[in-house]
Amino acid sequence: MPNHSKERDQAEARFKKAATQDAKEARAAYESEARAVREKTARLKALRLAKEAADLETRVDKKPIASKTTPSI
After folding, report:
1. Residues 2-20: pLDDT tens digits?
2. Selection from 58, 36, 56, 59 nearest residue 48 by Cα
3. Distance between CA atoms of 23 and 35, rounded to whole angstroms?
């Protein structure tokens, strides 16, 4: 069986603590980026819907232009 020294145990504890801290930081960065993407997507969707509504209003307000010539058969 391997003989563990006190120094090795302390080094392993420091490593695990650092790994845990790195994992927390990575998760926080991931969640922050995901939140930013959701917010940007919602903003762009609102802009798109507003533009589509405005386009629909302008299309409804315009009357179709009647042809001045008689259609040929």
Report:
1. 667 999 999 999 999 999 9
2. 56
3. 18
d(CA 68, CA 29): 64
DSSP state of 51: H
C-alpha to C-alpha distances, 16 to 12, 13, 20, 32, 61, nearest whole angstrom: 6, 5, 6, 24, 67
Strands (E), the chain: none
Q: Which two tokens stand for residue 19?
A: 């790994």
Distance from C-alpha of 48 to C-alpha of 18, rounded to nearest angstrom? 45
Instruction: Show me where the domains of the chain are located.
Output: 1-60
What pTM was estimated for this model as a whole? 0.57
